[in-house]
Amino acid sequence: MGDRMVKEKVLFYYNPHAGNGLFKNNLDYIIERFQLKGLRLVPVRAGQNGLLDGVFSKINPEEYRQVVAAGGDGTLNICVNAMIRNQIHLPLAIFPSGTANDFAHYLELPTDIKEMTDIALGHRMTESDVGVVNGRAFINVSAMGMMVDVSQRTDPVLKNTLGALAYYLKGLTEFPNLSPLPVRVESAEVNYQGDMYFMLVMNGTSAGGFRKLSPDSAINDGKLAVTIFKKMPITDFASLLLSYIQGNHQSNRNVIHFKTEEVRVDSPVNFGTDVDGEPGEKLPLHFTILKKRFRIYTYMDNMRGPVW
What we know:
- The chain is of the alpha+beta class.
- It folds into two domains: 9-122, Rossmann fold; 138-290, Tumour Suppressor Smad4, CATH 2.60.200.
- It has nine helices and 15 strands.
- Strands 5, 6, 7, 8, 9, 10, 11, 12, 13, 14 and 15 form an eleven-stranded antiparallel sheet that branches. The chain has a four-stranded parallel sheet with strand order 2-1-3-4, sandwiched between helices.
- Helix 7 (156-162) crosses helix 8 (164-174).
- The chain is elongated, with a radius of gyration of 20 Å.
- The two termini are 26 Å apart.
């Protein structure tokens, strides 16, 4: 072997509560599968703030084949941010088991443990950009406005039980109380100053289980997709909903949609923001993008971008 170091370790970062204990209950199976391939799984249990940073600061990446993030979009976000902060450039495998799993849905990753493990032990990968807002990375989406407040008030038990349906139900109960918010959006492509209900800055295509929010997004196109749902008469909501169902809401007169590498968002009032489904950054917001920062395991032949 000479001086060549064998990459025999795999860092397995898992949320024990995701998927009603899916990974905790299958950890022995996962360890066995990796061991049969000559790989040693190093499990790290999510929960303690800063724990993953401490782990990454001490490991020698040359000894590792990959990192596995097991959980929902929030777990994945913690892992991605820790990897960026500690300059870890190992390939990333995703074991999805959260409320919405929006980024994993984009990659068409399975929810079956055996199939997840098959992909992680494979060799096919695609590149992925990463969005950044006020220095904090997001792999899928940063959202802001009234619907973020709705999401953050949704009962966590209901989210875990009903998944995306919980957001729909809560949104319906809050609909009569929605109020427009003043916002100023500045980019090289579009400048907008006016009222909005909701805004998304996306790397992926879906958020909160809503699968067609940004159908023209691609995780490796070097762009962030921005969608602003403007203030509108209540009578226009029905046509906007129909446009959304048909997947062409971006051409609706009450929607502004564009792609950019950098955008700034500010408002004279405070409103809710989130990052990959978790509480987000405070205004003003400055968005940029890290192009093709990650290599992610997949088995797809139809990814938008290189797969090898």
